[in-house]
Amino acid sequence: MDKLERKDIIEKVSTLLKEIPSSMDIVKKGGNRDRRFDYLATHMVDKAIEKDALIISENRQGIAILFETSKNDDNIWKDLWAQLKLVANVTGVKNALEILKTQKYIKNQRPQEGKYLYCWFWGILKDYRGADTQVGKEMKDVFFRTSHDTGLELYAETRGRTNAIVYQRVGFELFHEWDHPSGDTMYFLKYDPKNSRNKRP
Fold first, then answer.
1. 116 with 153: CB under 8 angstroms?
2. Structure pTM?
3. pLDDT digits (tens, 9 = 90+) for 64-75
4. How far apart are the C-alpha atoms of 79 and 61, rounded to whole Å?
5. 77-126 pLDDT, tens digit each
6. How far is CA 62 from CA 4, 36, 127, 133, in A?
7. Helices (H), the chain
8. DSSP assignment of 48-72, as one string?
9. Chain center to CA of 101
10. Any idea what DSSP says for residue 28?
11. What's the half-sphere exposure (Cβ side, CA atoms, 13 Å) at 128?
């Protein structure tokens, strides 16, 4: 990926992050908030490139980050320097402490043994959403093909009820709901390739 392409993806992810409740919570308010969103987007995109986890739709208007991971990958020391820089440049200390609490609960809902796929981010630019566009279907098919190819369950969370309904409509199963400290409901979803009703796209 060249520098211009990377810059374009980071700009799009930064735009999309401003619509997501979880990222709105973690990005410290006040000052140059746009710069904080850009820093967070850069961190996410670079991590996705490093882990070969970046998925981009054919028309480049849909972007997702899909990791193959496990509980053992959650090593606090492994990314400590990056995390400290995120605290300084994105969240602030107070937000960081709240994030640690909620992340512990969220991670405990995922498999405690073995590998699984985790959809860390999925966004589609506003003009390309809706039933009459193919971007969502195209990306969903990539997720599910990866799940079938690897034989691994796929996990995702959302704090948007509409998003949760869309996830379920395309094949995810809602397995848990949580009253998030923000006052929202968080929906936990998974896709199981071994379920007989889930056919490989």
1. yes
2. 0.87
3. 999 999 987 755
4. 29
5. 456 556 767 767 777 767 777 777 888 899 999 999 999 999 999 999 99
6. 17, 22, 11, 11
7. 3-17, 21-26, 33-50, 80-86, 93-108, 135-150, 161-170
8. HHHTT-EEE-TTS-EEEEEEEEEGG
9. 18
10. P
11. 18
Are residues 162 and 173 in contact, defined by beta-carbon separation less than 8 angstroms? Answer: no
- Taking alpha carbons only, the member of 36, 37, 35, 41 closest to residue 6 is 41
Beta 173-179 vs 185-191: how paired, if at all?
A: antiparallel
Residues in the chain: 201
Count Cβ atoms within 10 A of the Cβ of residue 149 and give its class: 0-12 exposed, 13-18 middle, 19 or more buried.
exposed
How far is residue 11's CA from residue 30's CA, in Å, rounded to a whole number? 20
Are 6 and 41 spatial neighbours (Cβ–Cβ below 8 Å)?
no
**Residue type at position 56:** I
**69 HSE (CA, 13 A, CB side):** 23
From the list 89, 53, 84, the residue with the least C-alpha distance to 69 is 53
Structure tokens at 71: 């509980």
Inter-residue contact 117 to 146 (CB < 8 Å):
yes
Give the residue from 8, 7, 11, 60 showing the smallest Cα distance to 38.
11
